[in-house]
Specification:
Elements: E1 2-6, E2 14-26, E3 32-43, E4 49-55, E5 58-60, E6 77-80, H1 84-97, H2 124-128
Antiparallel strand pairs: 1-2, 2-3, 2-6, 3-4, 4-5
């Protein structure tokens, strides 16, 4: 989830960059998405540390403070580890590809073609016999 990039490719004044990815799911409309962020660590002139979140080359607010749904602008958003939305989409896609089961016809073979198969009509007492207590 977190990957530290060191000093290469830093924005002016950044001391380090950490890459983090998150999955999001809106609890209002059900929309799910994933986003990766470059979290740049900076030190202000007065000595205080601060971070800047960069997504797709743009500075954005922290996704952890008040995430907003990209679909309905709702703020009831669940934040999860990366890959959760993609795995849910893959699972849904696999379920759609499976054809629905329809009526199945049993193949009946003529009597006597398999002499090793014993045809027996079972009664309920016969089926319950293994579960009876020995007295």
């Amino acid at each position: 989830m977190t990957e530290i990039s060191g000093h290469s490719g830093l924005r002016a004044g950044a001391t380090a960059v950490v890459n983090e990815s998150y999955s999001f799911a809106c609890m209002r409309c059900g929309y799910g998405w994933e986003q990766s962020y470059e979290i740049e660590h900076h030190t202000a002139a007065d000595g205080h540390d601060f971070v800047m979140y960069v997504a797709d080359g743009r500075i954005v607010p922290s996704p952890l403070s008040r995430p907003t749904c990209q679909n309905c602008d709702g703020h009831v958003v669940r934040i999860m580890r990366p890959g959760r939305v993609a795995s849910a989409r893959d699972a849904a896609h696999r379920e759609r590809r499976v054809p629905s089961a329809g009526p199945v016809e049993a193949v009946r073979e003529p009597e006597g073609t398999h002499p090793a198969v014993e045809h027996r009509h079972w009664h309920l007492p016969d089926l319950l016999r293994p579960f009876r207590r020995a007295t």
